[in-house]
Design a protein that fits this description.
- By secondary structure, this protein is an alpha/beta fold.
- It has 2 domains: 2-171, Rossmann fold, CATH 3.40.50.620; 184-274, Pantoate--beta-alanine Ligase, Chain: A,domain 2, CATH 3.30.1300.
- 39% of the residues lie in helices and 20% in strands.
- A 6-stranded parallel β-sheet has the order 1-4-3-2-5-6, sandwiched between helices.
- The longest helix is centred in the middle third of the chain and has 16 residues, at 122-137.
- The protein is globular.
- 39% of the residues are buried.
- The protein binds pantoate.
- Pantoate binds at residues 26-28, 56, 59, 126, 129-130, 148, 151.
Length: 281
């Protein structure tokens, strides 16, 4: 396993082995089983697997959130060694964004609602760094989790719009036994907050049950979700949205497959999750 912070080393290793397929798993570190499931999938589908570990400052909306984002590089490297990862890029912020850095990649419409509305410039930061990661590794496939589904859609859009010859592979959400979607941010919850955090999955499950039993009105689905979340005193809702699968346009009725999104703050930590619902299933 080669680990380097040097962009030129990473680029050289990827280019030297140009007869094989490379899979890339971009991460911000503090790895959990969700990340490792992406790595395992890449390992099973590609000849070589690269991972980036970089807490990308330009996708954070608050300096405090960036500072408190959990980090543990030694542990991450140990976990990746067990997965037989070939190459790891661990750059410093100054190597990714030198002083005269002044270019960004912005995907327009799909990034506007939900996370985009709550976290201005978040997606611009994500797509800018992912474009840079794609340029450095030049992977054949790149693996992203469906927990950050709006991010996944923004990256797929960027790949189409900018003609990257890269297959973006969506990977299913991994959940804790109580249903909480795995996320590095979960580690920052207090014991009480961790218990309350199950409300995201409970709310999404209530939406799925409602749709399966014939409820089509989004207002009704949303009210039920809000009442489920409000049973947990410390949970503050940012948004509950039901959206069209392709465009993420907000829906007022569910007549076919749709995506239900939720964002909740607990202990000052933002948690997001989503689920696919389908009245026809
Ligand atoms: O999902 C993440 O961990 C990050 O947004 C990503 C894709 C690694 C970009 O920094």
């Amino acid at each position: 396993m080669k680990v380097s912070s040097d962009l030129n080393v990473i680029r050289r290793v990827c280019q030297e082995s140009n007869v094989c397929t490379w899979g890339l798993v971009p991460t911000m570190g503090y790895l959990h089983d969700g990340h490792l499931s992406l790595v395992r999938r890449a390992r099973s589908e590609c000849d070589r697997v690269g991972v980036s570990i970089f807490v990308n400052p330009i996708q954070f909306t608050s300096a405090e959130d960036l500072k408190s984002y959990p980090r543990n590089l030694d542990r991450d490297l140990e976990l990746l060694r067990e997965q037989e990862v070939d190459l790891i890029w661990t750059p410093q912020p100054g190597q990714v964004y030198p002083d005269d850095f002044q270019t960004s990649v912005n995907v327009e419409r799909i990034t506007r609602p939900m996370e985009g509305a709550s976290r201005p410039d978040h997606f611009r930061g994500v797509t800018t760094v992912v474009a840079k990661l794609f340029n450095v590794f030049q992977p054949d496939r790149a693996y992203f989790g469906e927990k950050d589904r709006q991010q996944l859609f923004a990256i797929q859009q960027m790949v189409r719009d900018l003609n990257y010859d890269i297959e973006v592979v969506p990977c299913a959400i991994l959940r804790e036994p109580d249903g909480l979607a795995m996320s590095s941010r979960n580690a920052r919850l207090t014991a009480r907050g961790r218990k309350q955090a199950v409300c995201l999955y409970e709310a999404l499950s209530s939406a799925k049950t409602a749709v399966a039993s014939g409820v089509a009105e989004v207002d009704t689905i949303r009210e039920e979700m809000i009442s489920v979340i409000h049973k947990h005193a410390g949970a503050h809702i940012d948004y509950v949205t039901v959206a069209a699968v392709e465009t993420l346009h907000e829906l007022t009725t569910v007549e076919g497959p749709a995506l239900v999104f939720v964002a909740v703050e607990i202990d000052g930590i933002r948690l997001i999750d989503n689920i696919l619902v389908n009245p026809l299933a």
